Each structure stands twice: as C-alpha cells, then as structure tokens.
Amino acid sequence: MPAIQYLATIFFNAAANVYRGLWQRVGELLFGIVLFFVELLVLTMVLYIAGRIVAGEKRTSLASAFAIALLGSILSSVFVAFIPYSILALFLSILVWLLLIKRLYKTGWLGAIAIGILAIIIFIAILVLLALLFGIFHIIYEWLIAPIL
What we know:
The protein is mainly alpha-helical. It has five helices and no strands. It is about 85% helix and about 0% strand.
C-alpha cells in the first residue's frame, strides 16, 4: 500500500470517528436535556401536591411549583459543580430549596420543611409504584435501601 493511500485511509477513518463521536455527543446532550425536562415536570407536580396539602390551595400554584423546581434544580447543580466540598454543597442546596419553598408558597420555615419532607415521601412513593409497574423494584431496593442497611 502506498504511503499516501495509507495516510488517506488513516485521515478518513479519523474523520469518520470524529463525526461519529460528534453525533454520539449530540445524542448524549439531547438525552440529558430531555431527562432534565422530565425530572422538572415530575418535581413540579410533586411540589405542587405537597404544597397544596401543607400550605393550602390559596397559597400554591402550578407556576410557583415550577419556579421552585426550576430555580432549585439550577442552583443545586451550580452548588454541586462549583463547591468542592460535597457536604457544604448539599447543605446549601437544602437551604436554597427550603428558602424557595418558604418565599414562593408564603409559609414559615416549619411549613417549608414539612413541604420538603412530604415532597420526598411523594417522590419515593411514585418511584416505588413506577418500579413495581416496570418490574425493576430490585434495582430501586438496591439503590435506596441497601446502602442504609
């Protein structure tokens, strides 16, 4: 095989790999964006239900639940990405979530804590029901319960 043909083969194979890698990255990015919006939708509904139960019908709205979910998700991601100490990032994330719930649902700190705890319970209940529906309960059990035991 002449050297120029060999170099051309290497070049075109490398170009094909870059092209394939680009589409793989686009697919991963698209999956991440879709996953973010699905999680945002689920979190909005969970916060709305928990807010209506604890704070009442007049103080909660779907728009405020969406704002809490969106701002809380973005700020928590920023804290985890830029704060090197994970326990500090976790503490700040919890504080921001509670502050958002407190301000947007016009409730006190205890009400915000109650809404947060109830939202976690509702989310876990939905997760278990979906796991039972899809037959993957053992995976959820290993993810949630096994580390505790």
